[in-house]
Amino acid sequence: MSSQRLCNVCSTPTQKKCTGCSIISYCSSKCQREDWVEHIFECNSPGRAITTADHLALAVKRGEMPSDPLTLQHFEFFRGPNPRAAAVFEMYTDLINELGVRPTKLNTWRENGTLIKEIKQAFKRIPPEELATRSYALYLEITHRNDRTFYPSELEIESCLWLVGAEFGGKLLIKSLEEFKGLLRDRLTPMSVTQINAQTLYGAVLATPPHAPPPEHTAWLVFGFCACNELNEGLLIYIYQTLIRVCTFAEVDAALESCSMISLMDSKGLKPWRIQLGKELEEVMSTGPKSFLPVWFLKNHLLAEKESVDVAWRLFGYPNCRNAGERSALDSVFRKLLLTPEAKPLELQDALLNGTLYEYASSRIEMKSNDRKLYRRLLQRLALRDVSPGMLGY
């Protein structure tokens, strides 16, 4: 007779185990469903690809705002200094906890381009007086716009006064903030996700002193700053400063949306500077904002210094860590591989695909003999049969 184990949710004695990993035990399908939101990130064989909707559901369960950039972009969280992000999170909390919408359904809505339409239908099942005030107020607002648009908040309006010059070919036609606000009120049009990211770029590179968008913001990824290091980041800032002076905001936004930013740079005479940033920039700009390689999420994880369960966490060995000390050790390895001027991110990505992370790491950085066993276990070959092509950036 096999020894009994305890249910991971309610501690009831049981002999049943997760069929994917055969490690975690559950006494019933109800307990397994309740725990699946978290366990899917740890299970050796979850049966499907992990999506940004899974990240959102995990954040809701933990009561914490999502931290990975792609989840924030896919589910339309307002980035930067916008207090309505908390209301968006409350809305999704109601949607998942009160209305019982599963991550698989959320992901289907997003992929079909019907996210807001379906949210509207879902909320019709609950009387308004039973919903959190802020959440329902936001629900009323977002149902007046389409799936992929935002209206700028008061703080966003104040932060993009510089857009006037860019929008009208470099001529500052508006002399005061109040006049600018009035113009926007008269001609207010929804702002797309790419426009929000472009706004963040403009605000960063035209600031005094100029700087890159922070790693916590999606703009850091989509405008290619993830491909830079501390020595050449200033060159990319200069390229965008120049581009802003010779292009309209609409041109920059269109180039980002169509993944043709490299062509726009080259057409404006910036190729001699652009090629100094190597093939990494070309790789990012040819796929973003549609898709990013896991290695860029790993770099974001290291720079943002926030614990998050994302694509990089799952693919680069973090589930193999048994404690905080081992996670810190793995961070240290990847910092040496990604955050130095000699870093070769695309080689690290290839090592991931080839299942040779340990071999690559040990060939690039010095490891003490007594640490090699630890890193070999942490960076052991990934079972690629359990990983969907989308998780690998293809």
TrEMBL record:
User: Which GO terms of the molecular function aspect are on file?
Assistant: zinc ion binding
| Zinc-finger listed as a keyword | yes
Q: Which UniProt keywords apply?
A: Metal-binding, Zinc, Zinc-finger
Gene3D superfamilies (alphabetical): 6.10.140.2220
Keyword Zinc-finger present in the record's keywords: the answer is yes
Give the superkingdom in one word. Answer: Eukaryota
Residues covered by the MYND-type domain: 7-43
Q: Which InterPro entries does the entry mention?
A: Znf_MYND
Protein name per its UniProtKB record:
MYND-type domain-containing protein
